[in-house]
Amino acid sequence: MTNVAPIQSERSSVLARLAEDPPIGTLTGLLAEQARRRPGHEFLRFADRSWTFAEIDEWTTRLARRLIAEDGVWPGDRVAIMLPNVVQWPVAWLAVLKAGAVTVPVNSSYQRADLEFVLRDSGARVLVTDAEHAPLAEQVRAENSELAGIRIIHAGTPGDLTAYPADPPAVDIAGETLANLQYTSGTTGFPKACMLTHDYWTRLGWVCANAAGLGADDVALTSQPFSYMDPQWNTALCLTIGAPLVVLPRFSASGFMADVRKHRATFCYVLGSMPTLLFKQPPHPAGPRQRPAHRAVLGHPRRAARRVRTAMERTVAGDLRDDRDRSRPGEPAGSHRGRRQRTAGPAGADQAGPGGRCPGSPGRRRRIR
């Protein structure tokens, strides 16, 4: 039990940091700061290549300039994004925010009725999409008089934007500025738009980074569709800590851990049935000596987090007994320095004990009603 005091001290320190406000309150401010401090450091990694903070900062600035000059986007306008997991998704998101507008994420698997509803309900003036989804968007526009004025533009490349200035547009953006109309899945009715501000995203990234103990030397990995919450807050997380984000095309239970090893990811977020599917995968034949160090897996409830830990152990190493043997008495298995794997429940969650269901404490100046 000699390890109890240091653990309690570390937890108290983490909780103290969680109560602090993020030092930068907007996503656009975070990107500008990382581009200034770490211009050549990797920020986004997709299958084909990776991009630095400076490259994404310039690309998003030029696209924001284009949205303002060519598409008539004003602060507060709604701009929808209907794309798969390609780099143009986060680029379009951050560009829309730089223009002072509001992003409307659209599931790229939507069919006509769903797309029509979200575009009408959100009041989107512009839709950013690609060649694959443009025909559906054009059909919806042609069949609905309320959407006749919506502009449909294709997500391009940096080379398409060289004619636009590389200095940020003069738009006032604050923490309380609306960033997203994030639609629910519509399980119990029509999808409903959640109003998410810049403060929401920056605070979420700040809390998760501190709760999981992440820094610039980490590598985050996501496989969920970018139109969902998870890759977006993972982006906010990486903007907070200055670390790269690896974005997979989709989740594959059989290939997930191979991608984790390939990219040497140290942090990933899983939810729903993902832990169960990972748990069912066979152990990796390479054994523990060839596995990378996985520091953090952030799941929803503590029970799911424990299942993820087991799945990671089985899949990556097959057996972590060698790690457990090196743990000090009273220290959780795998938590020793160097090669450790940690799981966390909801960021800042109070540890409710076995069988507990405590969801965690609200953030500073927040209350639960």
UniProtKB/TrEMBL annotation:
The record's PANTHER family line, in alphabetical order, gives: LONG-CHAIN-FATTY-ACID--COA LIGASE (PTHR43767), NONRIBOSOMAL PEPTIDE SYNTHASE PES1 (EUROFUNG)-RELATED (PTHR43767:SF1)
Q: Where in the sequence does UniProt note compositional bias of the Basic and acidic residues kind?
A: 319-329
AMP-dependent synthetase/ligase domain: from which residue to which, for each copy?
32-296
Query: Record's InterPro entries?
Result: AMP-binding_CS (IPR020845), AMP-dep_synth/lig_dom (IPR000873), ANL_N_sf (IPR042099), ATP-dep_AMP-bd_enzyme (IPR050237)
Q: Which UniProt keywords apply?
A: Ligase
Location of region: Disordered: 280-369
Bias-annotated ranges (Basic residues): 300-309
Q: What is this protein called?
A: Putative acyl-CoA ligase
* GO molecular function term, any single one: ligase activity
Q: Name one Pfam family in it.
A: AMP-binding
